[in-house]
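Fold this sequence, please.
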Amino acid sequence: MSVAGWRLFAAAFPSDEAIADLDAAVAPLRSTWTTLRWTPAATWHLTHAFFGDVPEERVPELADRLARAARRHPVVQLRFAGSGGFSRPARATVLYAGVSGPLTQLGELADSCAAAGRVIGLVREQRTYRPHLTLARAKGRAPVDVRDLVAELYGYAGPTWTASEIVLMRSHLGPPLRHEPLGSWPLTGAATPRP
């Protein structure tokens, strides 16, 4: 019998102020959109890379690679702004809050996190990085038309927050869903001027 590994991802965590502001904007919508399973604000994060099930003995190697990545990247100033739906708002399985800020810099950080897993054989698929915070998922398998929700959150712009570290997290799918931090590394790279 095979034992599944630890379900791991690398992430940034928004400030308490950013979470509280977004939570206040979303709170009035939850009770009227019962076709969605809303994620608890306590679990909100910005995923840089998902590693899937990782054997426990590989975790130190992954941690070492993420620490190296953190030393190459500066802190990033971000904010949550607007919303959308994957794969598209008319037939969405995920409702998300958008992210604004230096997205090229954020994408480079995410690429480094994914590369940390790839180098040791953990990340096999390469996807285009689309920074977002998952607010809700469709209940069951049927997509939901969230265009009205996206329109209601269109003008949302939360407070600026600083992504200052890479956090390696373990998901416990539950119920209830729980995230356990396994390590974190500060972003200490020098900022590069952008033209």
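Helices lie at 16-30, 59-71, 103-119, 147-152. The two ends are 55 Å apart (CA to CA).
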